[in-house]
Specification:
This protein is globular. It folds into 3 domains: about 170 residues, Orthogonal Bundle (Triger factor/SurA peptide-binding fold); about 100 residues, Chitinase A, domain 3, CATH 3.10.50.40; about 110 residues, Chitinase A, domain 3 (Roll), CATH 3.10.50.40. The N terminus is likely disordered. Strands 6-5-8-7 form a 4-stranded antiparallel beta sheet, sandwiched between helices. It has about 450 residues and is of the alpha+beta class. A hairpin with a 2-residue loop joins strand 11 and strand 12.
Length: about 450
């Protein structure tokens, strides 16, 4: 079951938001989902004399200083984004509630035996560094410059991973999308004929008419535009005609105006193109700027998933962690498999059939063609970085450890069944957010929470 962290901010370091996909586990889910995880924060320091306890959660305290650190972090983020600052007391109340919820969930994770090893934390650090386009060593230096000790940072990452795995186990199994829900959604979208709800990508040829142009000049420019229109409708390359005829600044881009919602286009453009199919070319459109010829490059209902995707064909070897096979031993074994395959001493498919503890073993580990979102982010992120025939290093998932080989990639139009599954994934993601909120609220309600003095 996929899910990802929407945004994980490393304190105020870099003033960047690192979109760290969770190391969420599970190999081939039926759909994707997005959960917003708590943000990494500095580890609480020893209580100062003036500090005090503001809440107790199942016997564990939350101090005023912890709340104030969260308030300061959020305030800094809002200031960097030039967004208005909320009332400080209200923000402190919200941060306290966030800390209470996080502590309740961490307590459940610990009681449930959820553990995160050092290798998984290493991978999380590497992901954050890579997504901020820096090396791990540079990330560590930047953290130090922001006053965060590396051990504290790693401790916070470990908590995030524990929360991720807890939510996967507790929340995702509750969410199911029926065929009836998919059917209803598709009917609603198909019945939505409002052009304002559509997104368009148009390309234009503009023959500009200068201010104060005489009737003769306007007529000549219109004739020039008509010539371009005739050639476009005869099938000539529109981008070539743009370079030859257009006076617009988007000439270098083939005249493309970009995919945008209908309300971001001039009404004249919408009137001229709303009845056209993709590839259609409008009549001449006269505006204050001159004569336009418009071609519909793309029409998309934003409520529907993309109709074409980049597919990946992969195979893998899975080793499950057990009392007889530790995670370190599994990693070493897969690393040795990779060494032998790269050296030409072994065949990937043969090793998969002999060793993989997965249903794909009989097929040599072949997982077939996969659309984006069919694997969890940890698996998919590694897969997406591979070149065809390249083999990954061992990576961890909830099933165990994997060795992945990307066999090939292709662009593909989704079949009707695949389109339905894409809709199912989209609906599941929305429902998962709702289910998580309900679960978190219920968990909070069953915890013993004593609110003492309000944070200041």
């Amino acid at each position: 079951m996929t899910h990802r962290f929407v945004a994980l901010t490393v304190a105020s370091f870099l003033s960047l938001v690192a979109s760290w996909p969770s190391l969420a586990q599970g190999l081939r889910p039926s759909s994707g989902a997005a959960l917003t995880a708590p943000v990494v924060r500095p580890q609480p320091e020893a209580q100062a004399p003036a500090d005090y306890i503001v809440a107790v959660v199942n016997s564990e305290p939350i101090t005023n200083s912890e709340v104030q650190r969260e308030v300061q972090r959020v305030t800094q983020q809002l200031a960097q984004q030039r967004r208005p600052l909320p009332d400080r007391k209200e923000l402190a109340r919200q941060m306290l509630e966030s800390l209470v919820n996080q502590k309740v969930q961490l307590q459940l994770a610990n009681e449930s035996g959820i553990r995160v090893d050092e290798v998984s934390v290493d991978q999380a650090v590497q992901n954050i560094a890579r997504q901020n386009q820096m090396e791990v060593a540079e990330l560590q230096r930047r953290l130090a410059s922001e006053g965060m000790v590396l051990s504290q940072f790693r401790s916070q990452l470990r908590e995030q991973l524990m929360l991720t795995r807890l939510r996967e186990r507790e929340v995702e199994p509750r969410v199911r999308i029926s065929d009836l829900e998919v059917d209803q959604y598709l009917r609603d979208q198909q019945n939505n004929t409002d052009p304002a709800a559509m997104e368009f990508n148009l390309a234009q040829i503009l023959v500009s008419v200068p201010d104060g142009a005489t009737a003769e000049q306007v007529s000549a420019l219109q004739a020039k535009a008509q010539k371009a229109l005739t050639r476009a409708r005869a099938g000539e390359d529109f981008a070539v005609l743009v370079r030859e005829f257009s006076d617009a600044s988007d000439r270098a881009n083939g005249g493309q105006l970009g995919l945008r919602s209908a309300n971001r286009y001039p009404p004249l453009f919408l009137e001229a193109t709303q009845s056209l199919a993709v590839g259609g070319i409008s009549a001449l459109v006269r505006s204050g700027a001159g004569f336009h010829i418009l071609k519909v490059l793309e029409k998309r209902n934003p409520g529907m998933p993309a109709m074409s995707v980049t597919q990946s064909h992969v195979r893998h070897i899975l080793l499950r962690v057990s009392p007889q096979l530790s995670e370190a031993a599994a990693r070493d074994k897969l690393s040795e498999f990779k060494r032998r395959i790269v050296a030409g001493q072994a065949d990937f498919a043969v090793l998969a059939r002999e060793n993989s503890q997965d249903g794909s073993a009989a097929q040599g580990g072949d997982l077939g063609w996969a659309n984006p979102g069919m694997f969890v982010p940890e698996f998919e992120e590694v897969m997406n970085r591979l070149a065809p025939t390249q083999i990954s290093d061992p990576l961890v998932s909830r099933f165990g450890l994997h060795l992945i080989q990307l066999m090939e990639r292709r662009e593909a139009t989704l079949s009707q069944r695949e389109q339905r599954e894409a809709v199912r994934a989209m609906l599941r993601e929305k429902k998962l957010d709702e289910s998580y909120a309900t679960w978190a609220q219920d968990l909070r309600g069953r915890a013993y929470v004593e609110l003492r003095e309000p944070p200041q």
